[in-house]
Amino acid sequence: MRRREFITLVGGAAAAWPLAARAQQGERMRRLGALTGIADEPVALARAAVFTKELEQLGWSHGRNIRIDYRWGGGDPEIIRRHAAELVALGPDVILATGGPALERMLQVTRSIPIVFAVVPDPVGSGFVARLSRPGGNATGFMQFEYGLSGKWLELLKQLVPGVTQAAVLRDPRITAGIGQFAVIQAMASSLGMEVTPINTTDAGEIERALVDFARSISGGLVVTAAASAIAQRELIVALAARYKLPAVYSARDYVGSGGLISYAADFTEQYRGAARYVDRILRGAKPADLPVQAPTKYELVINLKTAKALGLDVPATVLARADEVIE
User: Which listed residue, 151, 209, 255, 287, has the most CB atoms within 10 A of its CB?
Assistant: First the structure.
C-alpha cells in the first residue's frame, strides 16, 4: 500500500464523519491516537491498514463510532516527542504506540490514558511495564522480543560463515533497545570467537562511511538490530551489504524482502491485529493493567538464496533446513 492510498482511505473516511455522526446520533464517537512508524514506508502503511481492517471487523468503523488520529514518528526522537504531546492533547480514549521510542515518549506524557503497544523490545527490561502477566500501569500490548534474542543474530552469522571473526553491528544508541541489543551481542561475541564494531544508524552518511571503512579493512559480516532509524535506511543498508559482499543478518523480514540475506524475527503484522483486539477490549471497558503483555510464540527464519548466490555464499544445510521461508 502506498502512502497516498492509505491517506485517501483514512481521509475519505474522515470526510464522511460529520454526516455519518448525524446518521448515527445514538452512537458515541470514540477517539484513537496512533503514534507509529515511517509515513513513506510501505511496510508501516501496510501494517496500519491491517490494524484498521481488524478494528472494522470488530465493529469500529471510521466516521460511525471511531476516529483515528495518526502521527508518524519516523524513528526521530524529537518528532516522536512532539507527536506524543500532540496526541495526548487531543484527549483520545486509547493510544496505539509502535516501537520502544514511541511507547517511552507516550509514558512520559501520560500515565492515565490507556496505551496499547506493538513491536516493543523487552518492555519489562525497559521499565515500561511491571511484569508481562499483569503490566500494572496504563500500557499493555505485544512484545517484539527479549534482549536475549539479539545474541541469536550473531550466532546465525557465525553459522552462515563459520570463518567470520568480525561483525559490524548497526544499532541506534539513542534508544534503550539499541543499548540493550548491543550489550547482549557484545557479551555473546567472545564465546563465538568474534569481535563486534558498533555503527550508529542515526544518519545515512554515517552508516555509509562506517560500513565502507569496515568493509575495506575487515573481512566480516553485519548484524542489523531492531530500530526504526535502521528501517528508515533499509534500502541503503541492503545495497551497501550487496556492494561490499557483506553477509548480513537482519532483525526483520522486511530487509530480506528488499534483497537482504537472512532474517530472524516474529510476525509483526500479526501484532497489529492483536493490538486492534486489545484496543477493542479497552474501548469496551477492560483495563490495560489487567491485560497481559503477549510475547511472540514463533520466530521465523527467512533466507534469500538469490542474495546468497550473489555473495558467493553456500548456505549450510543445517541453516537451510530450519528456514520457514526461502526466497529464490
Answer: 255
Closest CA to 251 of 172, 174, 307: 172
What is the rounded average pLDDT of the residues 291-301? 95
pLDDT attached to residue 37: 83
Q: How far is CA 32 from CA 121, 184, 211, 256, in A?
A: 23, 36, 41, 32
Strands in 262-265's sheet, in edge-to-edge order, are 195-200, 166-171, 221-224, 248-250, 262-265, 300-304, 325-327
Residues 6+ apart with CB under 8 A from 103: 97, 115, 117, 120, 123, 128, 139, 141
Tell me what pLDDT residue 26 has. 57
Instruction: Decide: 153 and 249 in contact? Cβ < 8 Å.
Output: yes
What is the CA 14 to chain-centroid distance, rounded?
27
How many Å apart are CA 97 and CA 91, to the nearest integer?
A: 15
Q: Give the three-class secondary structure for 195.
A: strand
Cell numbers standing for residue 297: 510464540
| CATH numbers and ranges of domains, the chain | 3-144+267-290 (3.40.50.2300), 149-265+300-327 (3.40.50.2300)
What digits encode the pLDDT tens for the residues 136-172? 999 999 999 999 999 999 999 999 999 999 999 999 9
CA separation for the pair 149, 220 (Å, rounded)? 21
Residue type at position 3:
R
Give per-residue pLDDT as tens, 47-59. Answer: 999 999 999 999 9
CA–CA gap between residue 280 and residue 322 (Å, rounded): 36
| Position 17 confidence tier, pLDDT thresholds 50, 70, 90 | very low
Q: Are 49 and 9 in contact (CB under 8 A)?
A: yes
Name the residue type at position 44: A
What is the number of alpha carbons within 13 Å of residue 176 lying toward its C-beta? Answer: 18
Residue 218: left if φ>0, alpha if ψ -120 to 50, beta else—which one? beta
